[in-house]
Amino acid sequence: MKKSRLKKVLKWILVAFIIYIASGIALYFFQDKILFHPTVLPETYQYDFPVPFREINLAVTKEKNISIIQFKVPDSLSRGVILYFHGNMQNINRYAMYASDITKNNYEVWMIDYPGFGKSTGKRSEKIMYEDALRLYQMARARFSPDSIVLYGRSIGTGMASQLASVRDCKTLILEAPFYSINAVARQYFFIYPMAMMTEYSFPVYQYLENISIPIYIFHGTDDKVISYKNALRLMNSKKNNVELITIEKGKHNNLRDFPVFHQKLDSILKL
Q: In terms of Cα–Cα distance, which of 39, 217, 41, 35 is closest to 129?
């Protein structure tokens, strides 16, 4: 190989290496923005939902507020409460439409916004999100016994719901479009990087399921392009005894509610 050609090859290798390193650095420092896409709401914002609700703003410190919406049942006969941990987009406004799927079964639905989402303020980290989930659970325990508390996690929320179910008593754990772990999802998108060493968030759902003995129900669509269906299969393989996988054929990440089988199975779970 001529020297000029060799120099050109080495130059492009160097350029590729610099791009790889620069992209890796950007990925590390901006991972929070890649993972979370919140929409902030002012304190004066007025929620408007078709389902009866109560707004609670839990002031933990001067800097930290936890925004909670409690969706009520159609009548006064409440069978219990579902603590709902939503996805990584916007705020409670985006997920409020799912409440009626649950309240019609006479379960209240309590939704929490993560730090930086909606009216919730303060720093955000995996540890802090677990702590906020525990606070929500403690609020529920003031009114409900563990056998009347159901934990529901959707997408990123499956991390909080699974961790909480592994350390506190409850009736059932429902996971919609869960991931095996954040590292597993990150490797799906950024396979050329050592993601296990780079991610500040882990949410190891598979580890939490090992410590859960209550019934676990997983809803997942086969055409999910955000969190692949393989994640649900891996969770099933790692924890089989008390887990039921409800496969939604051709279901995607955000449309499982469009399938009758989703409602049929959810209704049957909540009637148990």
A: 35
E strands, 29-148, are: 37-38, 53-59, 65-71, 80-85, 89-90, 107-112
3-class secondary structure, 7: helix
pLDDT of residue 29: 56
User: Which H or E element spans position 263?
Assistant: helix 260-270
pLDDT digits (tens, 9 = 90+) for 131-164: 999 999 999 999 999 999 999 999 999 999 999 9
Determine phi and psi for 149, rounding to 5 degrees. Answer: -115, 120
* Total number of residues shown for the chain: 272
| pLDDT of the residue at 237 | 83
Distance (Å, rounded) from C-alpha 153 to C-alpha 163? 10
Q: What residue type is assigned to position 151 of the chain?
A: L
How far is the C-alpha of 23 from the C-alpha of 89, rounded, in Å? 24
Mean per-residue pLDDT for 229-239? 89
pLDDT tens by residue, 36-51: 999 999 999 999 998 8
Confidence (pTM)? 0.90
Nearest-angstrom CA–CA distance, 68 and 197: 34
Instruction: Quote the tokens at residue 114.
Output: 């993560």
The number of angstroms, rounded, from the C-alpha of 243 to the middle of its chain's C-alpha atoms is 18
Compute, in degrees rounded to 10, the torsion defined by CA atoms 95, 98, 102, 108.
30
3-state secondary structure of 190: coil
